[in-house]
Design brief:
The structure holds two protein chains of two kinds. By secondary structure, chain A is mainly β. Chain A has no helices and eleven strands. In chain A, the strands form two sheets. In chain A, strands 2, 4, 5, 6, 9, 10 and 11 form a seven-stranded mixed sheet that branches. In chain B, 0% of the residues lie in helices and 55% in strands. Chain B contains no helices and eleven strands. In chain B, a hairpin with a 6-residue loop joins strand 9 and strand 10. Classes of the chains: A mainly beta, B mainly beta. Chains A and B meet through strand 4, strand 5 and strand 9 of A and strand 5 and strand 10 of B.
Amino acid sequence: NAGVTQTPKFQVLKTGQSMTLQCAQDMNHNSMYWYRQDPGMGLRLIYYSASEGTTDKGEVPNGYNVSRLNKREFSLRLESAAPSQTSVYFCASSIRSKAGGSNTGELFFGEGSRLTVL
Amino acid sequence: GEDVEQSLFLSVREGDSSVINCTYTDSSSTYLYWYKQEPGAGLQLLTYIFSNMDMKQDQRLTVLLNKKDKHLSLRIADTQTGDSAIYFCAESMGDDYKLSFGAGTTVTVRA
């Protein structure tokens, strides 16, 4: 079982270039998330998709766009990369978006994509 | 996230107990979580506690929750070298399963 798969694992961009980070999950989860991890700041939510066909802004959405292509895939796009977007990006998924029932809201994470913008 | 705070570093001798502390702000959080991140890897859920519980024990792990003070702690008994990692405290935000994470505590286990 692959779980959450992110590509690419490493990328170096020049300022102003664009790129898309891809994420796919094979657990039939409803919700998907993109976080960025920076030293001393933990993980900050960029965008999330509570269910197929919906996307919402998180804590730090500026400079990013997302697409929930289908239930499995959730991509993150940088239209014009800036050095401040140098970070490690994590995609995650969860079985459901709303609290209640027996679900604990556990997030399953990919291995991360390390992006450097020069 | 700024709503969850934890100390950044902890050094512990192998065989001793480790205690990682966390404070959170959202009193409506349904669940509180501890995630572990090993070098070069993503985060994995270590344990969680439901908000109506005070304590949860799972083998070497003990989670204590003080709702009045909005304080969460993780105790690792008999700490081993394999426990060296970054530990993140997280709270569920409102009704959605968006999680707010602390900055992470880097635990270093020394011989």
